[in-house]
Amino acid sequence: MENRPLLQEAATGDDLRSDRRRPRGWKAMPYIIGNEAFERVATYGLTANFMVYLVKIYHMKQMAAANLCYVFGGTTSLAPLLGAFVSDAFWGRFRTLAVASIATFLGTVVLTLTAAAPQLRPPPCSQAAEESGQCPGPSNSQLAVLFLSLALLVLGAGGVRPCSLPFGVDQFDRTTERGKRGLDSFFNWYYSISTAGTVVAMTVVVYIQDSVSWAIGFGIPTGLMLLAIVFFFAGVKLYLFVPPEGSVFSGVAQVLVAAFRKRRLRLPSPNDAVQQESLLYSNLAQESAEEMKLPLTLQFRFLNKAAIICEGERKEDGQPADPWRLCSVHQIEQVKCAMRVIPIWASGIICFVALSQQWTFAALQSLKMDRHLGPSFEVPPGSLGIISLLAIILFIPVYDRALVPMARSLTGIESGITLLQRQGAGMVVAIISMVVAGLVEKKRRDSAVAHGGVNGSSPLSAMWLAPQLCLMGIAEAFNAVGQVEFYNRQFPEHMQTIAGSLFHCSLAGASYVSTFLVTFIRKSTAGPGQASWLEDNINVGRVDYFYYLIAVLGAGNLLYFVVCAHFYRYKGTGELKEASKDMEGIL
């Protein structure tokens, strides 16, 4: 929460030494963007097809593999919150990225060894034994090696995801027009390269894994991750190093502690925010450097007591003698911004549950469908997610160039619709995608049973899954992109690292909720002589019922979101302005 001046440091070897180095802008970008490109191909090349690897090579039951993927994905998405804390409070972005990149490389090496060394995986299994479920599973030592690789990948993701983009931003001088223009281009190139890396991982790398060799398919991402590290350290003489400024968590804790200590004091002018602000502590030296001075609000007014000035609590220069007893109005409003966002953030978890379920089960569905495109080429199950990515890539320009101007002419809002409306639209599309997914799954299951019983495979093309995957991509373009922009706009400037981590926390929550749902549905829907909805053989289960259940949960979540949006107060506004109208036109 403390606003410190930007310090500039240079690094040589393991030592960061103070240096008045100027930002080098685009001269440093090839190394940072190159690192991001190779890192993205490496990590997605390993994880995009991971569930198929667990089922085919480790002979795991399908639902057990799905749960492991959910837990791994959730932990990977939660780790950036810890990485952001370590970066801000102790190491800085460069050191955090360096350690995380090396951890990611080690994780890829260990995972590649599980595919290359026969001793580190279960023995091969015949097709007949595989269909009957008699394949030997992994031993405890083999699982230990697998979990070691996953732990290293989690550690790497925890440092790379929250720091990679901000470290690139640090290289531009945002006080000049040239720096601002360069930064705009950097964002475009960064996200373009990231998407391109994901596409390559989910096509070329996944195809090699499925059709050539798992060892080679994992070895390529490992080699690319080594190149990513080489690129990253090659630019060390050009980088601008911003030292850690302290964690925002300490500032939040100061406000909460100060408010608790003064809980018995009476607020002056309790019903007049303007008058009350004039009587409370305001650190003008600190707030003059802020991009946006936040006015005092009466929402969560119990926190305002942290700014009540008591005798002896200020030094002669006006600074608080004890920041754990006296906080400024601006500090308090920063904490309130975070508190207002949390209910909105919680609603995004269920939306991501819908998206993650389709991503996982679409691969399982495709294993029981015709995946041929043409007479010889067969689409790998792990590559089907590319349909969603292409939907995002194609839809965003249409949304930006066509839908936004149309909506702007109707609403008078510069962005066409508000950030909350964009998230709500994504939730609506996600619900529709789940209904479509249920209808397609019923058709696939009936066809598979008709062509070979419960062990049969449907002659339907896997492209029948394309409509639901396209809808999933559109939902993500609305909701996920809306969330990222919402967090960055609504969190205070000194909480931007946490804002970026919060999106990944939504993904983590969705993964853990998905794990709970799968386990709960398997147990609650099974009975004597009756299969559960989620059996290891999806022809026996009823995945379509599961899709419909998630659609119902999504509808309930949408109602909750509408209520939260109605009462939401935007950062920097003293009254409810846009919030009460945010859902107009969506329901």
Molecular structure report:
This protein is mainly α. It folds into three domains: 22-235, Up-down Bundle (Growth Hormone, Chain: A); 248-327, no CATH class; 338-577, MFS general substrate transporter like domains (Growth Hormone, Chain: A). The protein has 16 helices and four strands. It has a two-stranded antiparallel sheet with strand order 1-2. Strands 3-4 form a two-stranded antiparallel sheet. A hairpin with a 2-residue loop joins strand 1 and strand 2. Residues 1-20 and 575-587 have low confidence and may be disordered.
Strand order of the largest sheet: 1-2
The CATH superfamily name of the largest domain is MFS general substrate transporter like domains
Identify the CATH architecture of the largest domain. Up-down Bundle
Helix coverage percent: 55-70%
Helix count from the secondary structure assignment: 16
Number of domains: 3
**Low-confidence parts, pLDDT < 50 over ≥5 residues?**
1-20, 575-587
What is the CATH topology descriptor of the largest domain? Growth Hormone, Chain: A
Tally of extended strands?
Answer: 4
Biggest sheet details: 2 strands, antiparallel
- Terminal Cα separation, in Å? 38 Å
Averaged pLDDT:
82
SS content category: mainly alpha
Series of H and E elements: EEHHHHHHHHHHHEEHHHHH
The shape is globular
Q: Over the alpha carbons, how many angstroms does the gyration radius reach?
A: 26 Å
In the CATH scheme, the class of the largest domain would be Mainly Alpha
Share in β-strands? under 5%
